[in-house]
Amino acid sequence: MTDLYLSALNIPNQIGVHSVVLLHSDSSPTMSFIASSLPAFNKRHAQSLCRRRSRISLSLSPSSIPRVVKNPRAKKSAVFVEWLKENGMYLSEVATWGRPMHPLAIADETIDDGEVSGRGLIAMKPILQGEAVFEIPYELILTKEVALRSLPLPENVDDYIAIACLLVSERAKGEKSFWKPYFDVLPLDEELIPLFRWSEEDLALLAGSPCIAASKSLGLKLEAEFQSANEMYFENNRETFPEDVFNQEAWEWAFAILFSRAIMLTAEQRIGLVPYADLLNHNPFCSTYIDVHTKPLLDRKVVALYTDRPYNKMDQVFVTYGPKSNSDLLLLYGFVSDRNPYDSVELVVSLSESDPLYERKLAYLAQSGISSTSTFPLYRDRYPMELVEFLRFCVADEAEFTSADFGDFINESNETQVARALVDACQAALDAYPQTREEDDKLMATRSMFQLLSLKQRWAVRQRRAEKRILERTIVNIEKEMSDPTFMFTEVNAT
Ligand SMILES: C[S@@+](CC[C@H](N)C(=O)[O-])C[C@H]1O[C@@H](n2cnc3c(N)ncnc32)[C@H](O)[C@@H]1O
Questions:
Q1: pLDDT tier, 69 (very low <50, low <70, confident <90, very high otherwise)
Q2: Which residues belong to any copy of the SET domain (predicted)?
Q3: What integer is the mean pLDDT of 468-487?
Q4: Atom 22, ligand 1: which residue's CA is nearest?
Q5: Best residue for ligand 1 mutational test, from 196, 260, 332, 455 (most atoms within 8 Å of Cβ)
Q6: In angstroms, rounded to a whole number, what is the distance separating the alpha carbons of residues 164 and 261?
Q7: CB neighbour list of residue 326: distance below 8 Å, 6 or more residues apart
Q8: Of the candidates 343, 284, 337, 279, which has an alpha carbon nearest to the alpha carbon of residue 459?
Q9: Coil, strand or helix at 365
């Protein structure tokens, strides 16, 4: 279980390093498609989107601790900044010999696309492209190695399990934890709302969405993971791992933190929680990266951030959490982006049991190690060629089944049936939602009314509406293609 779950958590060089490939036993081909088909964006458009000014509430500048800070959130940020400085991070507001001022400040509240996005980092002066905007001492990072130094865990324990144990253990130490100021700026428990923490009642808001199955699947995996850690490490050593501290609830909290904040430190091929760096919010149009560097001459390791574009004063500085769909963002981070170019919805397609060739096709698929039910991502403007190939096979008649290469156009009739099957599958997916897209639009249309809904309700409406828009757009695109006399699925209209 542990291996299955964690083997997929090895993705990129960004905050939040998770692939949901683990959630669907049949999704590996899909994920490899995603990886090979990222859209190319107009650079200027991407830069302006990345630089869009979020609404922010700036409660302090980096070195403002001695002032009386009344707002409790700002106070926590100020104490955190002081802790970073005491532990060797350069955060000076003023330039000194050979060192420019630190260019960022913590904003205690940011708003992105009209929704709250928690703390964030803001440019306090213009920042050049490629500038190293911070260097965080390696000693502040929570990694598996740190966990192994303080907890009796085996060397071969998985990184995620080790850091989850470290988080739970350090949180329980309260004031005595070295990381206390860091824990104080983490979101409050009730602010941590990745989909896998939603109750049945909350999930009902997403009726019809494939997100529900993904959420339940991840919830079950975490539960199993906890049971296994309990048996292997906690039950045998209650002195170090007391039952009232190392419980299912704490485990879920630790993973909510890890999923939304852990960074893959590519240079070292390990994950870590990096205080301060994990205050950066997500913008899918950024390619800013964070990694470990050794300071020349000093032999000192730091985690540094290099910007991929210039920033103006008061711009929010973003990173990307990777080319993730909204369902992945909601599942692991607890938010949705309306302008997500990587958004996709999963379409499940199966071999029809009423097909006279059903048994033979089933045997053929089994022989090739392919499931008779497969899941494919539909994007706003494209879908994978693998989906078309699978459907060509599903709709094939006797002659086509025995002689065709499904990777290529077979004949007009087969291609038209594929198109109809795809339209029908999208329509069936749309019919599964209790509300229409127009009803969701209406809910969102009056901003003041929409804001009366809870945050989870608003994310749910945004998510299901985004899914419906992709399904509807796919139908429109296919129907438009079909009206063209030269219609056929190619690498151009599929990818
Ligand atoms: C790595 S943390 C970033 C710092 C975080 N805002 C905080 O207050 O600590 C990731 C979390 O920030 C929030 N977040 C990041 N980017 C966002 C965005 N574009 N829109 C809404 N929320 C976002 C989500 O709650 C996510 O789980």
A1: low
A2: 102-322
A3: 92
A4: 117
A5: 260
A6: 12
A7: 336, 337, 340, 343, 462, 463, 466, 467
A8: 337
A9: helix
Give the count of alpha carbons within 13 A of 458, CB side only: 22
pLDDT at 26: 27
Distance 197 CA to ligand 1 centre (A): 16
State which amino acid sits at residue 306. Y
Q: What is the rounded average pLDDT of the residues 386-407?
A: 93
CB count, 10 Å around CB of 466?
Answer: 25
Going from the Cα of 364 to the center of ligand 1, the distance in angstroms, rounded, reads 46
Residue scoring higher pLDDT (28 or 208): 208
Give the model's pLDDT for residue 411.
Answer: 93
Cβ of 335 less than 6 Å from ligand 1: yes
Q: Is the CB of residue 115 below 6 angstroms from any atom belonging to ligand 1? A: yes
- 305, 170 Cβ separation under 8 angstroms: no
Q: What angle do CA 104, 108, 114 make, to 5 degrees?
A: 105
Q: Which residue has the tokens 């700026």?
A: 185
Rounded CA-CA distance 88/384 in Å is 49
Per-residue b or e along 189-227, where b marks 16 or more CB atoms closer than 10 Å to that residue's CB: eeebbbbbbbeeebbebbebbbbbebbbbbbebbeebbe
Rounded to a whole number of angstroms, the CA Rg of the chain reads 25
> Collapsing DSSP states into helix, strand and coil, what is residue 95?
coil
Distance (Å, whole) CA 109 – CA 116: 7
| Cβ pair 210, 108 in contact under 8 A | no
Query: What does the angle CA 456 – CA 23 – CA 376 come to, to the nearest 5 degrees?
Result: 95
Alpha helices in 58-187 (DSSP H): 72-86, 144-150, 159-173, 180-184
Residue 36 neighbours by CB under 8 Å, 6+ apart: none
Kindly report the backbone phi and psi dihedral angles of residue 42, in degrees, each rounded to the nearest multiple of 5, phi listed first: -65, 125
Q: What is the pTM of this model?
A: 0.87
Q: What is the mean pLDDT of the chain?
A: 86
Q: Count of alpha carbons within 13 Å of 200, Cβ hemisphere only?
A: 0
Average pLDDT over residues 347-365: 95
Q: How many CB atoms lie within 10 A of CB 1?
A: 11
Q: Is the CB of 221 under 6 A from ligand 1?
A: no
Pocket test for ligand 1, best of 182, 316, 335 (most atoms within 8 A of CB): 335
CB atoms within 10 A of CB 134: 22
Ligand 1 contact via 282 beta carbon (within 6 Å): yes
Of the two residues 156 and 38, the one the predictor is more confident about is 156
Is the Cβ atom of 462 under 6 angstroms away from ligand 1?
Answer: no
Other C-beta atoms lying within 10 Å of the C-beta of residue 116: 13
Q: Under a CB-based contact definition with an 8 Å cutoff, are residues 465 and 440 in contact?
A: yes
Cβ proximity of 468 and 440 under 8 Å: yes
Is 205 in contact with 215 (CB distance < 8 Å)? no
Q: List domains and CATH numbers for the chain.
A: 2-332 (3.90.1410.10), 344-482 (3.90.1420.10)
Residue entry with tokens 């901003």: 447
